[in-house]
Amino acid sequence: MSKDHERKGVNEHSKDEQLEQYRMDNRGKKMTTNQGLRVSEDEHSLKAGVRGPTLMEDFHFREKMTHFDHERIPERIVHARGYGVHGYFQVYEPMTEFTRAKFLQDPSVKTPVFVRFSTVAGSKGSGDTVRDARGFATKFYTEEGNYDLVGNNIPVFFIQDAIKFPDLVHAFKPEPHNEMPQAATAHDTFWDFVANNPESAHMVMWTMSDRGIPRSYRMMEGFGVHTFRFVNEQGKARFVKFHWKPVLGVHSLVWDEAQKIAGKDTDFHRRDLWETIENGGIVEYELGVQMIDEEDEFKFDFDILDPTKLWPEEIVPVKLIGKMTLNRNQDNVFAETEQVAFHPGNVVPGIDFSNDPLLQGRLFSYTDTQLIRLGGPNFHEIPINRPVCPFHNNQYDGYHRMTINKGPVAYHKNSLQNNDPSPATEEEGGYVHYQEKVEGRKVRQRSESFEDYFSQAKLFWNSMSPVEKQHIISAFCFEVGKVKSKDVQQQVVDLFANVDATLAEHIAEGLGATPPDKNKESNESFHSPALSQANTVKTPVSRQVAVLVENGFHGDEVQQVLDALKQAGIRADIISQTLGTVTSEDGRELEVTATFLTTDSVLYDAVYVAGGKQSTAQTQKAAKGFINEAYSHYKAIGAANEGVELLALAAGSTEEPGLVTAKDEKDLARFNQAFIEAIAEHRHWNRQV
Predict the structure, then answer these.
(1) What angle do CA 315, 319, 323 make, to 5 degrees?
(2) Does residue 412 lie within any of the structural domains?
(3) C-beta separation of 395 from 376 below 8 A
(4) What positions carry a catalytic annotation?
(5) Do residues 239 and 171 touch, judged by C-beta distance below 8 A?
(6) What angle do CA 12, 13, 18 make, to 5 degrees?
(7) To 10 degrees, the CA torsion angle through 176, 308, 217, 144?
(8) pLDDT by residue (tens digit) across 404-425?
(9) 507 and 552 together in one domain
(10) What is the pTM of this model?
(11) pLDDT tens, position by position, 377-390
(12) What range defines the domain where residue 158 resides?
C-alpha cells in the first residue's frame, strides 16, 4: 500500500466515508420494516374491524413498538450529560525523538477526532452550567488504531486509588433516600466524604474555583490527569502528561450568572458549541505535553504518579506539539455522543501507561461499563467507535455482531488458514508494552510519597488572584452552607485549615463554625502563574453581544458599531421588545434576534445600548434590568448618544471600568476600539466591591 493511500485512510474526510456505509439516508426512499419489507400504512395498527381489537399478527406494529420500548440505553453513571463534535488534529513537527506514535510524526496528516465534553455529577437531563468538573474526552482515529485521551478540565482528581471511585461517586450523587440534589455537590454526603478523605483537598480547591463554572467548552482547558509514558523507536521512555490549551483562553462564568443560566437555558454550553460551528466558526485547542525523563522520577517534592498532584508548568514546561480543530457538528446525538465508547486503554505504539493507581483501575472499569451500556462486547463496531484502519482477530459472535466472519477457523495458532491473522512484530507496528522492571510484595497500601495532601492545594491557593480567592471563599460558603450537619461543616473548616488559615477562617465565619487552628496550615510558598485565569489569553473573537434597540435608533451609529463588532469576530444579536424588525430614524431596518422575554443578559458576554431618543425611551423599562444584571456580572457595556443616559440610569454610573461611552457619532471610532478591548477582557473585576 502506498504512503499516499495510507494517508487517505486517516484524513479528515475518511471517517465520513467510513460512516457513510452505516448511515441510513431516508430522503426519497420508501418506508420499510427493519427487515426491508415495504410498509403500506404507518398511521393505524391492524385491527379486527375499524373499532375492533388490535391483532397480534401486526408484525409492523410489534417491531415499531418494541424498538421504541428499547431505544433508551442506560445513561453513564458519571459524565452522563455530554455533547460531541467532530474535527481533526495535526502535529506541528515530528515527535520522533520522544514517541513512535505515527499520528504525532507528519504535520501534513490530519487525524480525524471526535470529542465529547461533559459534566461529571449530573444526570443526562441536568444543566450545563452547574458547578462541577468537566469531561474532555478525545478519540483519535489513527492509522494504527483508535487512541483515546480521556481527561477532564482539571489536572488532578479527588482520589488516589481507583478502589475509592465508587465511594466518591456515591457521595457526590443525589442522596439515595430522597434522590436530591441533582447535579450538585452542595449536600452532606459529598462534604462528609471530603472531610474524611483529605486526599480530595486539592481537587476540591479547583472545583470551588472559577474552573468549576466555565464560560463555554470553547474556553475550557483540558488535561489527561494521569501520568503516561512516551516511548520512542529506540525504546527510551519518558513520563508524560497531556494538556489541551484553548486558543481563546480559559474563561469562566460568575456563580450568580451560572445559576441563572441553568434556569434560562439548560443547554447553554452545548448550544454555544453547536451554534459556533453551525455559523462557520471553528473551535481550536493546542495539544501540549509535559515530559520527565525516567531517571528524574524521584527528584521532585511530590510523587509524579500521584493523580492528586500536578506538575507545575514553571518546573516542568508544557511543550505545544499540535493543534486540534473542531469544525463539524454531530449528525445524531444518540448514534454518536451517546454511543461513543472511550477507554484510557485504547492506545497506539509509542504511548504506554504508568503505575498511577487511579489510571490502573480505569484500565479495567471503562470496558466493563460499556458492556452493560452498549449491550455486549461488539461496541467497537458501532460507527462512531469503529477505527478507520482494518481490524482482524479471532473474536467472534456476541450481542450486536456486525461483522460476518467467513470460514471455519477462529483460533490461534492454526494451520488451516496459514496461522492468519498472525501477530505483528514491533517492526511491523505491533504494540509492545514498555518493559518496566516490576517487583515487590503483594500489599493493600499506598506509597508514603502519596501522603502529602495539602501542599499542592496551598500552591493552587497561592496562585490565585485576589478576585479568584474571593470566589473560592464564596463557593465554599455556598456549598458547605447547604450542609445540614454542623459536625460535617466543622470538619470541613478543620480540614481546610491544613491548606490555608485565612481561607478556613472565612469559611468558618460564613458557616458560623468554630475558627480553625491557625498553626495547621501548609507552609508551601510556591505559586504557579499558569494556574490563574488572570494570566490567560484574552481575545474578542467569538464573543456575543446583546444590542438593545427599538424603533427610532440612530442608523449610522448602530451600523458602524455592528460593522466593527463583526470585523473583530464578535456576534451581535438585536434585542427588542417584539420580534420582527426595528426601524431607524432614517428608515433602515434590522431584524430582531430575540426579545427581552426570550433572552437574558446572562446569555451574553457584553451589552451595547444603542442611541436614539425614541429608541431609548421605548426600551428604557425593559432594558434597565438587562443592563443592571450585566453590570453586576462585571461585563463590558457600551452606550452611545442617548444610550449613555440609559446606561447611567440602569448602572448608576458611566465612568467605571468596562463601561464605554460615546457622546456623539464623531467619537464612534474610538468607542468601537475601546468597546472591543473591553469585551476581550471578559470581566472587569475592578467594579467588584
Answers:
(1) 145
(2) no
(3) no
(4) 79, 152
(5) no
(6) 115
(7) -110
(8) 888 888 888 888 888 888 888 8
(9) no
(10) 0.92
(11) 999 999 999 999 88
(12) 82-188+210-381
